Amino acid sequence: MKRAEKVIISCAITGSIHTPSMSPHLPVTPEQIAEGAIGAAKAGAAILHLHARDPQTGKPTQNPEMFKRFLPVIKQGCDGIVNITTGGGLGMTLDERLAAAKWASPEIASMNMGSFNFNISGASGRIPSFKNDWEQPYLEMTKDFILSNTFTQIERGMTELGALGTRFEFECYDVGHLYNLAHFAERGLVKPPFFVQAIFGILGGIGPEPENLMHMKATADRLFGNDYYLSILAAGRHQLPFVTMGAILGGNVRVGLEDNLYLGKGELAPSNADQVAKIRRILEELSLQIATPDDARRMLGTKGAAHVGF
What we know:
With about 300 residues, this protein is α/β, with parallel strands linked by helices. It has a single domain (about 5-305), classed as TIM Barrel (Alpha-Beta Barrel). Helices cover about 35% and strands about 20% of the residues. It has helices at about 30-45, 65, 70-75, 95-105, 135-140, 150-160, 175-185, 210-225, 240-250, 270-285, 295-300; strands at about 5, 10, 45-50, 50-55, 60, 80-85, 110, 115, 145, 165-170, 195-200, 230-235, 250-255, 260-265, 265-270, 290. Helix 1 (about 30-45) links the parallel strand 2 (about 10) and strand 3 (about 45-50). Helix 1 (about 30-45) packs parallel to helix 3 (about 70-75). The longest helix is centred in the last third of the chain and has 15 residues, at about 210-225. The two termini are about 35 Å apart. The model has no long low-confidence stretch (mean pLDDT about 95). Pfam families: BKACE (PF05853). One of its GO terms (molecular function) is metal ion binding. Its cofactor is Zn(2+).
């Protein structure tokens, strides 16, 4: 692993997992997403991981027209690196999932590195009432849902977006996903340094135990040597302990309302910026320096904000 002199903070602004009924602070409209992203960047996030939502219902959408409503605003309002999802919303086709990133030609796009069960149905029982008709069925259908990322699908995403000069955040939800990335690296479809996002706590992926973090790092070290940067995210209440542990090990961190709606026990996070500010305080108390967007560009070898499509 490349042990960075400075820690990259990524912030995932809204995602496609949480629904509007779970928190009044979840960004839904283009204006809210832009405000959340710019606020996170000003608080210290170098990378802004972005999904879009229907502004009327809050339902996830990958329609490029929706991204067009906030990406230019974010670019004008801050220097953060834009990272567009290719995971999209649960149940979308691959064409739908890739559409926004192919239009935007961002510096970074996410790339899920394997298929797996993705079960978020448990959240449904904790919501007393839903604001929108789509929310409860969307959550409950995941009891019988596989998030599909076949080798053919991954190769297509890597090829089509790689041709645009886009780099990747390789999202690895289990140990096997690291081996999948090694397969594509050996074939030359992706080039180092790899930005490996290890993800813990999604039901169907690797569990949120510290030993699992150590195992993921050891496996990535064996597969990629000094050719990768490790970043850590964990779902819900596991977010801050896990990302702090990852930073102590020499890795980078991801926070944001996509991954966790809370700032502390029983306290909903008022904004993405509040989560960024909190992890920044923790990192600085550990005498770790925070990477600026330009620091992250140099570390990850992105093409720069002048070469995106928005």
